[in-house]
Amino acid sequence: xxxxxxxxxxxxIELIIVLVVVMIIITAAVYQSGRSKEHFTRQNLxxxxxxxLERARFDSVKRRPSSSNIDDQSRIxxxxxxxxxxxxxxxxxxxxxxxxxxxxxxxxxxxxxVGNNLAFPITISFDxxxxxxxxxxxxxxxxxxxFTLCQNCxxxxxxxxxxxxxxxxxxxxxxxxxxxxxxxxxxxxxxxxDTSSVHNPLIKVN
Length: 206
Hints:
Layout: H1 7-63, E1 75-80, E2 83-87, E3 101-105, E4 111-114, E5 122-126, E6 132-135, E7 146-151, E8 163-168, E9 174-178
Antiparallel strand pairs: 1-2, 1-5, 2-3, 4-7, 5-6, 7-8, 8-9
């Protein structure tokens, strides 16, 4: 008479359990990999926006445009929630020509600019000292100094895992922060107009 092996049933059950556990682990790893890819994509786009702002500031300080005309200043224009333009002296001829413009599109990445009462287009321009002026379609001068790039979220659901904020100080310093944060704003220094001998006449701010 043929004898049945009592261990064969347990081995099959154990194999099924192992396969289920492996499938769960693989599914979790694939999901986490997708989330990590989205995270890096958003961070890279936020970092690129920060670099364009820093380049615009450096470009204006380097060229020192004498005119207060915004067209002479290096600037970033946020056209809408998913695109912005950078106006820089790319050909190094000392002025911003019609060809000195780069268009950056975020639409394919599910990353967008979010915030309360954003009125596009928003222009961030830098004067010859590197100080910023922010204007939008509603106000000639806007107090907005930080811009949040969010991936598949809104300003109310933005956090450190799905959003990055680029903050710009009045003097033009740019910082990248996780989630929705703003830098503390330092007071502008007081510049004296006193021309008496108490102050060194050789020290002058143009």
